[in-house]
Amino acid sequence: MLVTGIELLKKANEEGYAVGAFNTSNLEITQAIVEAAEEMRSPAIIQVSEGGLKYAGIETISAIVRTLATKASVPIALHLDHGTDFNNVMKCLRNGWTSVMMDASKLPLEKNIEVTKNVVTIAHGMGVSVEAEIGKIGGTEDNVTVDEREASMTDPDEAFKFAKETGVDYLAISIGTAHGPYKGEPKLDFDRLVKIKEMLKMPIVLHGASGVPEADIRKAVSLGVNKINIDTDIRQAFAARLRELLKNDEEVYDPRKILGPCKEAMKEVIKNKMRMFGSEGRA
Ligand code: G3H
Ligand code: 13P
Ligand code: ZN
Question: What residues make up the catalytic site (predicted)?
Answer without folding.
Answer: 81 (proton donor)
